[in-house]
Amino acid sequence: MKRLFSLTMITVLVLSILSACSSKGNESASSSESEDKITVEFWGLDTQKRIYEPVIEDFEKEHPEIDISYSTRTVDAHKEGLKVAASSNTMPDVWFNWGGTLGSFYPENELTLDLTEHAEQGKWNELYLETALELTKYEEQITGVPTKLAGLGIFYRKDIFEEQGIEVPKTFDEFEAVMAKLKDNNITPVSVGGKFGWHTMRFTEAVLEHYAGPELKDQLISLEQSWDNTAVEETYAKLKEWEGKGYFPTGFITADPNEAKMPFYSGDAAMLLEGPWFDTTATEDEFPLENIGVFPFPTDQEPQRVSSFVEMLQINGHASKEVQDAAVEFALYATSKEVIEKYKDNYDFPVAAAGVEIPEEFPNVPTLVDSLNEGAFVITDQALPQDLVVKFFEAQDNVITGEFTPKEAAEFLQKSAEGVK
Fold this sequence. Notes:
4-stranded mixed β-sheet; 12 strands; disordered N terminus
C-alpha cells in the first residue's frame, strides 16, 4: 500500500509539473501573440465614444494584427493633453483634432505625418469632400484624415416667422429688417450666449465678412492687412447698434452659450447662429424639428461664404512606419462611406466622406451643406493665431460693454496683432 501510495504521489507530481509547463507554454504563446500585435494609441473626445467604440471593435476583428488603444477626454482636457504631450514627446499615434490654428500647431512643429502622398495614391479626392480636404491643409500638406465638415447658419422658428408674416431674408438689409420687426413685436430676434466669447464671435465674423468682403477679411485673418481700418470699425459699430436696439438678450455677454437655446425653444427668441449639430440638439431636447428652418447669414458678398471648420484624425509623424500605416488604415476605415452608413445613427452629420446620404432626421443639414459648397471661410477661433483669438474676444466684448469705442477696438486688435507677429 505504501508503494502504491508513493507511485500515486509521483504520478500526481509529474502531471502537476507537466500541467504547469503546459500553462507556462500557453502564457508564453499568448504573450508572444500580444507582442506581435501592432498597438495604436488613439485619443478622442468623450462625446465621440458612440462613434468609435463599435467601429474599433469591427476594425480589430477585420485586422486582428492591430490593437486600437482608445482613450477619451473632455474638449478642454483633450486640447491641454495634446499640448502637454507635444512638449514632452509623448504624443499618441492618432488623435482627434480640429482644423485651422488648432490643428496646424502640430504640423507646424513637425509632429504629424504628412498625408499628401497617401491622399494622392489613395485618391482621397474621390473619398472626401473637396472643402473638407482643403481645410485639413497646412502649407499645402494634408495634415489629417477629415471626419466631419461643419458650416454655420441662422436657425429660425418657422412658426414665429409665419405668425409674424416674415420671409427668410436674402440680404443684410432684409436681415436687419427682420430683427427690427421681431423686436417691435416683443420677440428677441437672436439668442446669444456671450460667455467665453465664441458665441458672440460668430456674429462678429459674419458682420465683418459683410463689411470687409472675402478678400480683405482673409487678409485680416492672415495678418496681411491692418485691423485698424474702416471695415473693422463698421463691424464693431453694427454689433453695438444691435445690442443697443435689443436684438440680443439683455445681459447676453455673460450668459452661457449652452443656455442660448432655451429662449429659442420657449418662443422668446426667434433665431440662433448654430451649426449642423443643432438638429441633433433639438431632437434630444424633444423640440419639434418641423418648427425649425435654417438659412445662411446674408453677407451680400460673392461668393456667399459661411463660417466653417473641419474635424480630423491626425497621425504621429514620429511613430514607427508600421504603427503609422496601421493608424492611417484605421483612420480611413473609420471615415469610410461603408462604415458610416453601417453606423449612421452614431455619426455626426455632415460627415467629410463623399457620397454619404444625409439621414432624414437631419432636415436642416442639407441646406448647410449647400451653403458650404457655395463658399466657406475658416471659423475665426480656428483661423487666427490662438494668442490673438483671446484678444479678438476681448475687443468684441469691450465694445458691447462700452469699454471700447469701435475705433479703440480696431486699434487694440491691430496692436495685439503686431505683438503676435
